[in-house]
Amino acid sequence: MFKLAKKWWKYLTAKLTGSFDEHADPKVQLEQAIMEAKEQHQRLKEQATAVIASQKQAEIRLNSKIGELEKLSANARQALIMAADAGRAGDTEKAAKYNAAAETIATQLIEVEKDIESLKSMVLENTQAADQAKAAVAQNSRLLQQKIAEKSKLVSQLEQAKMQEQMNSAMQQLNESVGEDVPTLHEVEEKIQVRYAKAKAAAELQETTVESSMLEIEQATANVEAQGRLSELRAELGLDSGTTAAPQVEPGT
Question: What pTM did the predictor assign?
């Protein structure tokens, strides 16, 4: 029973997720993805800041211990010198007192030296961790910039896709019948082409008729000129129009 319920839950989750992804606005999803990436980068920077701060604190403590060690070393030397001076002066009580102080300082020196060695290891580890944190932040920053650039590219592609979808929808509406009394664009185009073809045919026919009339006029003009020329030739020959001249016979023939 539990396994069956678990299967149904996974099925419903997948179905709801698919339905959500199908109807979700890609632009909003891109903004959400970039926002999540920025928040993750901020968390990484905070973690890196904490690691670097630990490294800085360890360095401060190490420097402080080194300064304490130098001071104790100087005090130990001074106590030994004063003990030696008191011994040479025959003041055994002061010599013992200064030697005891030198021993106490030496014990403190040993403890400080141990602390310094421990702090050196801590500083080394923290420095490596800080370097890794800095590298992680730098790498994540580059990835974030890439995501932002990719987001701008995807938003541009999304706007182009929306524009193309709108154009496709507009063209589909133009090519489809809007109503019974409204012709489609294709039908209007065919009507215009038919009217244009008829107009071109009528124009060509008119041009042919005019050309025929012009040809008849030119032929008539040519005939008149030819008849006029023939009349001139007949007059020069002394021939009457419409008759044929008889041949002349010389006397004595």
Answer: 0.49
